[in-house]
Amino acid sequence: GSEKTLGKSHPSTLMAVVNIANVYSEYLEDQGKAEGLYKRALKGYEAQLGRDHVTTKQGAMNLAICFARAGEKLKLKKITDEYPFILIEVPDLNPDYYDWSDIGSDEDLEVWVDEEWSSDEEGNDG
User: From 13, 63, 112, 126, which residue has the greatest number of CB atoms within 10 Å?
Assistant: First the structure.
């Protein structure tokens, strides 16, 4: 498909990745598989289009919704901190609606960022 023709990080390829992630997230309720695909798309959009592009922002929102569906509070906090507009666009993701007391310390968050995002880059871009 488009990945062979256009490359892994072409916006059209990334849109196909998002469509597959949407199926996993919304219909198959497999947030684990959806998360990896949404992360791949978001990283590609950031690289190709920049953080402020509307498509990149939608990618961040997709990932935040996936984290919320999975009950991944730490990851949801991380993405909404990185992309604060999400809380304006999707008020239900506002931290005021959640008990954030169990998400851990800032140090825990840094460990997650180092491990989760870095390992994902190695696994999905190769």
Answer: 63
Q: Spell out the residues 6+ positions from residue 8 whose beta carbon is closer than 8 angstroms to its own.
A: 44, 125
Is the Cβ–Cβ distance between 56 and 49 less than 8 Å? yes
The single residue listed with the structure tokens 């959009």 is 45
d(CA 35, CA 6): 23
Closest CA to 15 of 51, 56, 75: 56
What pLDDT digit, counting tens, does each position of 76-105 carry?
Answer: 888 888 888 888 777 767 655 655 455 444
CA distances from 67 to 16, 50, 89 (A): 20, 22, 16
Residues 13-72 pLDDT 10s: 899 999 999 999 888 889 999 999 999 999 999 999 999 999 999 999 999 989 888 888
- d(C-alpha 14, C-alpha 12), whole Å: 5
Residue 37, both tokens: 């695909």
Cα 16 to Cα 3, 20, 107: the distances in Å are: 9, 6, 35
